[in-house]
């Protein structure tokens, strides 16, 4: 089943790092209903066909989620709403959400994740349980969560044993479903740990493409707040080190160095598991979208094929 099949290479944009431009081709970005409301029209900001995730935070009404999906679909974007297992009360509620998204916004893609809630609201505790319902059969694309720096909510002992077991299960599922699958990760700030994590997944036989989470340009204080709240671990030291540098303290953070290192590694190792970039626009959607355009993010669609073999 083919979702996209873009094989042509777009010409490099003058003044842009061609390796970064290649990695940014086909990037995705995340919004919430309340942040999307602040944007009058996404079309001047995001290339047509951009995948836009809609984050479902606990307490957000499904009506607001579906309205945001409907609007983005009408403006020409591929919509991928979050389905956080622990805030969904029942199989019936999950089926209702899916029916609303598909009926009102033609949604055929979903990000399935446990969610940041410690106590489940109902029968679901993990994305695997939602997958096993069969309700997502017929979706074109399913993404699952990835944690390059571990997840203490899942592995309280600081290991990644349970996370790796879950990814192994999801790899096996990907081999028996027609849906395209990928791992969408939490945002990180340091390239070396991400590279080591991606290489480890490959060594463990987990071949799901990785869409690496990247924090968009933002004030340093904002990033540190979100990083702590989201449990970002070792790479937080990059921000802490920056905070110690008086010359950089007041300057906004930009992911140039992080993406540059990943892009250079990808150029040297074409088979490297990171397939695409997923932006968390912590400093604002317009700021993030402008940064992406300035660094080649508007130059073309993905060079990779997302065709099911």
From TrEMBL:
Alphabetical keyword list: Oxidoreductase
Origin: domain of life: Bacteria
Gene3D superfamilies listed in its UniProt record: 3.20.20.220
Molecular function per GO: oxidoreductase activity
Protein name: Methylenetetrahydrofolate reductase
Source organism: Fertoeibacter niger
């Amino acid at each position: 089943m083919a979702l996209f099949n873009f094989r042509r290479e777009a010409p490099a944009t003058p003044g842009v790092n061609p390796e970064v431009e290649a990695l940014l081709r086909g990037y995705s970005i995340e919004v919430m209903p309340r942040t999307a409301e602040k944007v009058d029209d996404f079309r001047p900001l995001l290339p047509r066909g951009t995948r836009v995730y809609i984050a479902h935070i606990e307490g957000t009404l499904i009506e607001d989620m579906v309205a945001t999906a409907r609007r983005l679909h009408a403006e020409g974007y591929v919509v991928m709403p979050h389905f956080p297992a622990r805030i969904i009360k029942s199989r019936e509620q999950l089926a209702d959400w899916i029916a609303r998204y598909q009926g009102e916004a033609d949604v055929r893609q979903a990000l399935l994740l446990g969610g940041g809630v410690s106590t489940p609201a109902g029968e679901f505790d993990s994305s695997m349980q939602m997958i096993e319902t069969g309700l997502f059969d017929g979706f074109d694309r399913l993404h699952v969560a990835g944690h390059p720096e571990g997840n203490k909510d899942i592995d309280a002992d600081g290991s990644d044993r349970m996370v790796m077991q879950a990814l192994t299960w999801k790899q096996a599922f990907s081999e028996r479903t027609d849906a395209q699958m990928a791992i969408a990760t939490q945002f990180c700030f340091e390239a070396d740990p991400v590279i080591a994590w991606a290489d480890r997944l490959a060594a463990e036989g987990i071949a799901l493409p990785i869409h690496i989470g990247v924090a968009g340009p933002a004030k340093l204080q904002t990033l540190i707040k979100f990083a702590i709240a989201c449990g970002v671990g070792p790479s937080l030291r990059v921000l802490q080190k920056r905070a110690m540098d008086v010359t950089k303290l007041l300057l906004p953070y930009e992911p140039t160095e992080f993406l540059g290192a990943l892009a250079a590694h990808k150029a040297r190792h074409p088979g490297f598991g990171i397939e695409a970039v997923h932006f968390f626009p912590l400093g604002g959607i317009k700021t993030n979208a402008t940064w992406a355009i300035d660094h080649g993010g508007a130059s073309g669609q993905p060079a990779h094929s997302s065709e099911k073999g």
